[in-house]
Queue: 2 jobs
Job 1
Amino acid sequence: MAETVFYILAACTVVSALGCISARNPVASVMWLVSAMFGLAGIYLLHGAEFIAVIQVLVYAGAIMVLFLFVIMLLNIGDGPADLRAPPMRVVGLAVGAVLLLELVALGRYSAGRIAVEADPLGSTALSSPTAAFPGAAQALAGTAERGVVGGIAESLFTTYLVPFEITSVLLLAAAVGAVVLAKRKI
Amino acid sequence: MPLGPSLVLSAVLFSIGVVGVLVRRNVIVLFMCVELMLNAVNLSFVALSQVHGFGGQVMVFFVMAVAAAEAAVGLAIILAIFRHTRSVDLKSINLLHG
Amino acid sequence: MTFSVLAGLAPLLAQATGGAEAAAPASSGGVVSAIGMAVLLPFLGFLVNGALALWRPDAKRIVSMVGPAVLVGSFVIAILVFLEVRSAPHAGPILVHYWDWMTVGTLELALQFQVDQLSVVMMLVITGIGSLIHIFSVGYMRADPGYARYFSYLNLFVAFMLILVLGSNLPVLFIGWEGVGLCSYLLIGFWYQDKANADAGKKAFIVNRIGDFGVLVAMFTLWWSLGTLEFSEIAELAPTGLVVGGGIVTLITMALFVGCTGKSAQIPLYTWLPDAMAGPTPVSALIHAATMVTAGVYLVARTSVLFAMAPTTSMVVAGIGALTAVFAATIGLRQYDIKKVLAYSTVSQLGYMFLAVGTGAYVAGVFHLVTHAFFKALLFLGSGSVIHAMHHALHATHSPADPQDMRNMGGLKRYLPWTYGLMMIATLAIAGIPIFSGFFSKDEILAFAFSRAAEAPIWYLFWGMGLAAALMTAFYMARLMSMTFLGQNRTGQAEQEHLHEAPWIMTGPLLVLGVLSLAGGLLNLPGFIPGLPHHLLDTWLEPVLEPALRFAALDLPHGATEAMLIAGAVFIAVAGLAWGFRSTGRAALVAAGEAPDERGLWRVIYHKYYIDELYHAVVVRPLVGLSRIVLWKGVDKGLIDGLMVHGSAATARGLGWLGSRLQTGQVGVYVLTFLLGAVWLLRAMTR
């Protein structure tokens, strides 16, 4: 059941991504990307990362994409005559993308296989149930029944990763200041 | 929840993002394709957090925060450039040619 | 080369008078260890006169004293050394070691002098005649602004020549060999402001260099085959170490002979000697008559053991000597410049010397070397007197006529009686009239050639050529004397008042040389004259030539054959002289300006058979063309300048341009590059 849903969502995401990169109108591009993000949010849910799924929708789709829309409308860009680059570049782009895909898949197989081998050198554990290979992770995930996923993330975030958390907040402040400064007409 | 297909999906989305970066002429759409790539990576992290614990999801948290900051600043830059060159065509940003 | 020599001679200053160890089979006296002084004195003269030439060129007084004085000093040392060697004739060569020059692997070269009978003879000739010529030069060059420079070069020449004859191994000899070539260049081109003189100097040096290559090849081959370059060791090792008549010894001797053809002006490398007459006349007397050109004959005599072991080469040597003797004599028949006649005469007489050593008559060759030095120096210095007088006369009347052209002379007997008399003695000597020195030496050579012919008939040809050359020698010398001193004077009425005999400082040396030309035959009289000591030189040089004579001993003809040969030679000499005097006396000679152009065969002879032009077309032009087109334009400008220098600059610029193409300033390109790099990295990780 979960698998079917996954494949449906995956298909939607991929179609949306393709639409995003090929849409002529920038606003249409934004909408396609939003759709892709929704699909991804669904997949996050399937993975049991509820918190992340929700923030994805709230922050990414809801704030960042809206920011994009604001800028597009501010600049008042309509349809470009030919919004894709010259044909040679298109061929090169597709080629690079294809090669990259192949490499990443190969990498993925390699690392997944290694995980399986590390977990069970005798090779009975299939790729599809990695949770069985890492009892510790399974236990941590099992603890979510009490605290929920948010609790789990919070624990990591405010203890182990506290410093990066604080720095990220400073970063956001800097970004905000920077964006204001850059966008002013006269400094 | 199967790990493999998620990773493959992540790779596919990433590649699509790469193609988009190379093929599009509009700077803002280019930026969006970069966001797509970031999302693909997020998916990777989330998928692997099943195996490795909450560290993956914390990563995604940070990635999103930084992506937000980056989007803000990047779009501000695009605005500034637009004021100079009056277009969002990639070709018009070539003042650093040598 | 000059540098290394100068650097090499510096320690001589410290060691010459006492520090030198004399290594010898016999004990050597203090005199021989002072042999270094004999070389050092002229060298000091060079330094002093050179310094004066640079900073006080008008201090002629000092130069007049220093220049000849160092030579006389060397001559005194030479006499003392001669007495020393005479007291112990069979003691073997005395080696005076100065310092180790090079020790590389098994090669051990030392700067070492070898004092034996042969080097003593050469030393006496060089310093003795050298002193006379220096004294003559004091008068001759008095008015020249380059007076000090002249004497410094002349002194340096003597120093190098002494190194050449005193060297105990080939490299030291070669130092002297090159050094005299250098000084010859400097002195021929002494009046370098006239380009023709500078060109003549260059020609001499370059043609000599071609020969030097032969000497180098010989040195290398000798080292490779025998492992030594010391003359005494060669004399010991060669008879057993090399195959008689074999390829190696033939190669060595042929290569040495190539060097001799260059230095001693034989065919084919003789062309520089006539041009060398562009230098001052005393230079021609010293360098191109008495000393430098005889270096080749000395070299053959010194390495006589090798030549005696190579009959093929010896035949070539004799053949070329004979051919050169005849060839040069024919050219001398029709030259009008007095010095040119003497130059070709020198080439011809050198041919006689090589005929002698090629025949195996090494003593005869050295004998002729000595007597030739006497009478040729006398002839040159005498002509110097004549030219001095002519120059003075023509200069006084501002006439543009050539003072050296015999057609402008005539009847000078009246004005230069001493010069006339002494030059006549030299003429009789060179023609081979009995009693005079040239008769004995030339006759000995022809006699040896004739006796060699009994084993190898080709020597009859050489002997015949020698006779022909003798006839022509007598003829052109008589012609020279006749055109210069006899008959009517053609210089001009106004000039005649200014013609006068040379001052005593010039005529004095002529006198001494005259006596020597007359009495020089005493050095090696043949056995049939009763009462007088005979074969002095033979006995003297026997210890040196003994290894060679083992291979190529030769007997002089005796009895009837001997008498016939002598009679024949005398007849030819007298006939030649008579014919020469008569043919020029009869014809109405005209001054150079009005003389008709030569025609036919005479024209070819006058233009020296166009050999110079031939060399120019066959050797010089292709070489210059090769240098200019292939080496200069092709290699130097094209390859080195173009490809390497400009090419590397262009490559750098090109690479830079390529690099600049990356900086398009376009974000899209940057992104592409970025991603390509990422793809490449990932590829590495998937391996």
Job 2
Amino acid sequence: MSEHKEQENYLTAGFSLKSWLLTYDHKRIAILYLISIVTMFFIGGIFAALMRVELMTPQSDVFEPDNYNKLFTMHGIVMVFFFIIPAVPGVLGNFLLPLMIGAKDVAFPKLNLLSWYVYMVGATFTLYTIVSGGVDTGWTFYTPYSTSASQTHVVPVVLGLFITGFSSILTGLNFMVTVHRMRAPGLTWFRLPLMVWSLYATSIIQILGTPVIAVTLMMAGLEKIFRIGLFDPALGGDPVLFQHLFWFYSHPAVYIMIVPGMGVINEVVTCFSRRGIFGYRAIAFANVGFVIFSFVVWGHHMVVAGQSVYSALIFSILSYLVGIFSAIKVFNWTATMYKGSISFETPMLYVLGFQGLFLIGGLTGLFLAALGFDVHVHDTYFVVAHFHYVMVGGLVMAFMAGIHFWWPKITGKMYPELIAKFSMILVFAGFNFTFFPQFILGYLGMPRRYASYSEEFQVLNILSTAGGSVLGLGFLLTVLYMVWSLYFGKKVNANPWKATGLEWEHASSPPITENFHEIPVVTEDPYNYANRDFIKDFPKEVEVGA
Amino acid sequence: MSEQHSEHHIVSPKVYGTILVALLICTVLTYYVAGIDLGIFNNFVALGIAVFKATLVILFFMHMYYSTRLLWIVVAGSFFWLALMLLITLGDYVTRSWDIQHRIFF
Amino acid sequence: MHSSDHSAHHPALAHHFHDLHQQKDATWLAMWVFLATEIMFFGGLFLAYVVYRSSYPEAFAMASNRLNVPMGLGNTFVLILSSFTMAMSVYSAQVGKKGGTIVAWLILTLLLGSTFLVVKTFEYREKFEHHLVPGRHFDFYSHWEGHESAASHEGASASHETANKTSHEASASHEGASGKTKGVREVQIFFGLYFAMTGLHAFHMIIGAGLLIWLIVLALKGKFSAEYNSPVELVGLYWHFVDIVWIFLFPLLYLLGRHYHS
């Protein structure tokens, strides 16, 4: 709109704390999540930093081994449950889903706000646990150590995670119903942006999986308090049963983590290749494949735990099959870029980083799915490297791509491109220096969750710690320039990237509280770059109707 | 914009009454059959009757008989998922004895 | 292009929905999806039950026979009846009966549900008195009529020391007392699952009771009509689900040992 009239948008709709903390607006709730998860990310990062400081020397000279155990446990709990699982759905999903489907809000806005509050209650329990001494069981809470022997605050943290799970469940429920019932006229399933498909698939996994971890944690808590014998061999229980129940959720959980990130990749890769997505239906159905197959591979975490070898065999085969769906997506994104008109803005740089790093992470996952190999590297740094490649090299890069891509839409301001590119290089380089050595360390036999290690591993550990400093710097710089851009960033029009999608072509930057002045009617396929005139169809200012 | 509207079907009290009677009869049946030793079939009968009762409740008290395909998928899907969890985990327990030295539970 | 623009805006219609129909569709789907999560939630406990029952069939049968079947059976009838009265509340609301009728059926449902919970309280108290609550005071043989043989007395005193010894030693002393007492320590697992499953179920009943009270208040205020009655239907769905859980719990927990001679 014209510059002399400050346009009303969701950010100017109220400035009091109450208007933020009692909002029903999905966009404001997304911002609340953003602040929370970034805070938790840095808390989790501090634990990681402390771990890496310890690991610079072979002896456990900075921390007692018991305290080191608390560090990696809290790092895992905070990062898994309070950063990576809620990150994309809570921030980008919340902000974008109604916009992408042409709705005014999600199906249940009050439930949406409740989800955030439930998350905050869970986070409070966990923070309480941290300040009162932490937990030392590993984020996996394996029994009978966690239920019988550990002297740390297992019950409060388990209770906190139980509560946090409901945040995930409610978000999933909300998104699922939203996609089914709130789509704009003309928006059939196969006209949806693939980000919506990804969020939808994630929602189903959240709905079916999270209740199981909730009941498992409840059982572990009861076991600790009442010594029932559910998971304690001394009382007739089976610790492997705990692992079955735990991983039944925690494996699909990694798909809750990555699938929304993959959704982001679809949106960014098409925009910066100026092309429609290659193989839309294949990617859409790959999401369905993830929903089903993610639930039948959990035993690959338990190869050496004591399950039957036949069980391990089935899980191994299925784990290979689940890799097919990731492969479909990575191939299709590559094919999308082929002969596209590629530009290298920061979001695209993160996408390219994702492609390479997720590939390495995914392939090493397949190595681990091979029983013969897994037996040797289980519980070593090889596994640690693998999952950091997919979670950080994959998801965090995708999240960064998404944050940068939609930042102008969310805030109405552009981030500083040059510093952002520099930051990306820091993150990419730092990440690789941190985690690639860990593949080697694991292969050479360095166990995970150990405060001390054999002398010969020191050089690679020092390299890893050095990389970690650069990585942390990259993230810190990102937060700084993003905050800077809120005050000093260049104002943007509705569609600075000239991207397709309802959020870009029918909503202002930032959007108004109701998202659209008029609910759009959809008549074409998504990513219709082929039918857009670069100059004509993206005027300097998008007319947003009266 | 919505695919299938849920039928606004009003189920009559007569149907409810019939289901009530059926459920009560099945409960009595479960009780009596449990007292007869049928060996392994006790489990199947007990579960079978329970599943039948649950089906009646879902179809008629919860109106699933008159509902959309999407809801059928949601209900069937969740029971299927539960079955998946049970069967695959039990697969582990059942096959543990196939390696003789691991015979702990069976 | 608005798809529909009702000039008469029903007070219960939320602003982000186009019409009551879309709202009802969305809330109905949401409740079923929520019930799907509940199925998986209880499912974890059912899994533990199945695993341990197949591992320790005799211990489970023996333990099950300590449960109060008349109370369980009575409660089953009560709950099924309450499902019927709940369905009738929904029917009354759907055909637009006066608030009073709806309230009557809801109150009946609430009374039946409360009966269930009261009986449960008696049941739990009995278990507590018989030292069948898992934990430090768990003692399977105390208070077991007809089992005051010398062997079980030894077993009883041995189990008192279980808290101090490891269970390994305790079960060894059980075996020493009588060859048939092998597997007694696993009865605690049964009771752990019993309390967890019925406790979780009772917790859901309490929430259900709360929801019913909320509905009664709304019905008394005349909020329900043939046009708008979703809350009654949705609470109905929840209530029926809780009934279904009990339909499975009753035979699995209470009746499993009935045909065993112990």
